[in-house]
Amino acid sequence: MTDILFALSKILWFPARPGHFALIVGFLGLLLVWRGRRSGRWLVLASLGFFLMLVATPVNQWLLLPLEDRFPRPAAVPERVDGIIVLGGAVDQNITEARGIPSLNGAAERMTEGVVLANRYPGARIVFTGGQGSFVHGSVTEADVARQLWTAMGITPERVIYEDQARNTHENAVFTRRLVEPKPGEVWLLVTSASHMPRSVGVFRAAGWRDIVPWPVNYRSGHTWQAWYDAPFPERLGQFEWAFREWIGLMAYRLMGRTESVLPAP
Can you give the residue ranges of the DUF218 domain (predicted)? Predict the structure, then answer.
């Protein structure tokens, strides 16, 4: 059943992705207009209206802000940390396999922050969790890329547990807990993108990580006009799609019982 849900999530996301969906609607409208049906004009207008909305308003920021503000970093840096968990999603294993060197995407701060924390807390256990998160992939996992990158940056492979089976956030939480078996009272930091943190915390709590400490990175929103309107259109579309996917993921995970609430609270 888990494999079926994973496959469905990847297949359905392609047409449901807002940019793709708007284009599909627009081309369908053009087809209807070409066949002489005036109703197609409304579909064309709806498609163009979506893209105009992204240009004229900071709707991408409005979707991101509640997610990224939900779990701020601790006001005081913890004096003792027993473990650090870095979620996958920041590397491109397919490009890495094609080119032979580690390739990072827009969530690269997950990887750099992992190195910063490893140096700050030399006694902490480190876990990177990420397998084959993409539907079409080769033989290289996210953990393989992380191992190659972090080793080159000075973190010895013996210090890190590389979990290479998880395909989504739910499996990140379940498989990592099974590997490290955290003890009561231990302090574990959870490193992932700020917009992904609500879903991650909810899933980790449901999997038994009751005292996980959120450590968000990779912020993409702000509370100033400059932050709202500075990004070019392709970046705005990407932010909108990322935030839209997170909101859908929060609702889907709640329906599947993988979280205890739609929007977990601090």
Answer: 82-249
Do 204 and 212 form a contact (C-beta atoms < 8 A)? yes
**How many CA atoms, within 13 angstroms, populate the side-chain half-sphere of residue 138?**
12
CA angle 234, 201, 92 (to 5 degrees): 40
Backbone angles phi, psi at 126, to 5 degrees: -125, 135
Residue 266: inside a domain: no
Question: What's the gap between Cα 141 and its chain centre?
Answer: 16
If asked whether residues 230 and 212 sit together in one domain, one would say no
Rounded to whole angstroms, the Cα distance separating 176 from 164 reads: 10
> Which pTM does this prediction carry?
0.91
Residue 76 within any structural domain of the chain: no
Per residue in 84-104, pLDDT (tens digit) is 999 999 999 889 999 999 999
Q: Are residues 192 and 117 in the same domain?
A: yes
Joined together, the tokens standing for residue 97 give 């396999």
CB 153 within 8 A of CB 113: no
Provide the number of structural domains found in the chain. Answer: 2
Range of the domain at 37: 2-69+225-255
User: In this structure, what token pair is assigned to residue 113?
Assistant: 């922050």
pLDDT, tens only, 204-248: 999 998 889 999 999 999 999 999 999 999 999 999 999 999 999
